[in-house]
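Fig. S4 source data, part A: sequence.
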Amino acid sequence: MDNRGFQQGSFNSFQSSSSDEDLMDIPGTAMDFSMRDDVPPLDGEIEEDKSYNGGGIGSSNRMMDFLEEPIPGVGTYDDFNTIDWVREKSRDRDRHREITNKSKESTWALIHSVSDAFSGWLLMLLIGLLSGSLAGLIDISAHWMTDLKEGICTGGIWFNHEHCCWNSQHVTFEDRDKCPEWNSWSQLIISTNEGAFAYIVNYFTYVLWALLFAFLAVSLVKVFAPYACGSGIPEIKTILSGFIIRGYLGKWTLIIKTITLVLAVSSGLSLGKEGPLVHVACCCGNILCHCFNKYRKNEAKRREVLSAAAAAGVSVAFGAPIGGVLFSLEEVSYYFPLKTLWRSFFAALVAAFTLRSINPFGNSRLVLFYVEFHTPWHLFELVPFILLGIFGGLWGALFIRTNIAWCRKRKTTQLGKYPVIEVLVMTAITAILAFPNEYTRMSTSELISELFNDCGLLDSSKLCDYENRFNTSKAGELPDRPAGVGVYSAMWQLALTLILKIVITIFTFGMKIPSGLFIPSMAVGAIAGRLLGVGMEQLAYYHHDWAIFNSWCSQGADCITPGLYAMVGAAACLGGVTRMTVSLVVIMFELTGGLEYIVPLMAAAMTSKWVADALGREGIYDAHIRLNGYPFLEAKEEFAHKTLAMDVMKPRRNDPLLTVLTQDSMTVEDVETIISETTYSGFPVVVSRESQRLVGFVLRRDLIISIENARKKQDGVVSTSVIYFTEHSPPVPPYTPPTLKLRNILDLSPFTVTDLTPMEIVVDIFRKLGLRQCLVTHNGRLLGIITKKDVLKHIAQMANQDPDSILFN
């Protein structure tokens, strides 16, 4: 990051531009963060407690220490930078120790100690309530606006199609979707729903509504909250690893993402709301953190809250509280202590209970596609389940490669400059191709619900149009039957739907609107699974005497459940794209309400992951993190190369010497000159330039704030004033400018490694301690520095990837 000049980072700018919508509750800065220099920025640790003792000019040693009063901005982080996990955890331990010691002194201090311990649970309760309420609002609004494209309820404009006909007195069970209160747009405009002209009117209004919703969504995102686009999970994953993206979890992002998510889903584009709901829940968690100093002032503690909020987001997205906790643990969280596990579970529980109380779908379920199966599966069926896993892995690898290639083209060409046109063109193409096919015209959640459905006698869907050739059957159980005309028609339509979903999702994910990937991926797998399930069902019916069937499937028995194949296919495709395993299986069995199908789900999920990993190691979220250049150090990957710290550190051979500060021989002018002429974010402090013996590390940001604060608060500090980083200073002759003591902003225990330390150890240190940089020494003398960006570039270089793709430290 390029910080040009001392005067750009003025104390006033640090003090005045803070906002409660920023991810970090820190004062703002006017520094320039553009990448103008290939030299990575250096970040350092600083202590929490700063001191200032306003010794005047006439004091005994004329030493000025301006840091006893807390200065806004000192000890905090710049935007697009990484937090120091070690320092943040140390600060929290010191805070907790102080509260515990004070609790023994008075009743009020004891009450404060109890409230501090309870604040985490109260925060989880608020996150669960707010996340569940917003999820219910999004579900109800999206359902209503999706139906608005096809018609309107004259009995109450606020009713969607299903609720409109529920309230009707003129509807039969067989025709429960047709009632006089629900009017299509052709009925309202030309008073008829029959004929070619009525079809054209409905077609035109469907496309028009879709374009209107998409235009409103992309316009609101572009004007008010650019961070509200996309899924949000790659950025959430990066933020939880310690990265700072100001405003990404702010109030404007929350408001705009909630509104535009409804619009985007209602437009009919091939996207889902489940992924963005994680972003919405994390926004709720970040905003509510401002109510508690314990979390507002500590970045590591705040990320524990965000991990729990991510669990609540998945809980309301799928109605799966346990799956949400496991998703947060397996997929997004970087630091997940046992305490966070308990609180995540509580937040997910409250969120699910709140959504259940709202009952957005009117069926006492948390999701539209909840289903229960009753027929047991047979061992032989593991073969088609594994085939679905292979299909899911192939689809996942294909999707990741093609989508990343398209997103890279969007970033590097003129296409990225016209997000509104791109969204409108994709919406028009999707709507025009979707309307003629009833399975693409309906919302993707309704499609999945239809595919998961286990056909009964009263089902009127074409997927359940079987020929009834039986006399008796067990109660609540239907035997396998020959497919009727409706089933064969549905198979052709589903095959066309599968092709459209595969192609259109590649170009939709990553556009400048809220777009989740869970539902489109599940839809692709559910369609493939249903097609295979119906094929297996008909094979078992017509050839029940084959060796593979005769031992367990007799004529007239209910052997094959096509809906189960759809569910397994959905899990396989979602696993192939995201590389989820344990959390995916738990989410899917929570959706079905039964534990009997865990083995098929596990077989499909693991096969999908193995096949996808064989074709590419990265899941879709890790691929987008790398595409955006975020400094995410993957904890799951092993570093197996035999390089040393001296091979990675800066400066390299033939590079200029490392810029350092000396502990007692530099003036204010000297330090300001270094700050203005370099772009580094921090500087090692040494005893002298000759000895290069390391004393500590000081952050550029803290130097700027401290020096300017000293100039403002005390007369006599001039450019020739000497800066001391020592604990004691020598006597100063009379009539010389007062000296400035800045020892309290110096990190006296920076992490160091020797130049011969293997890089695999250095990488492990960065991963497990969350470091931003470590210094390299030889026999106690400072040689260089390794930043997190240097480590990421080295890993990319060893993997034959572009090291310059890492944009931030």
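Fig. S4 source data, part B ends here. Residues 1-64, 471-476 have pLDDT under 50 and may be disordered.
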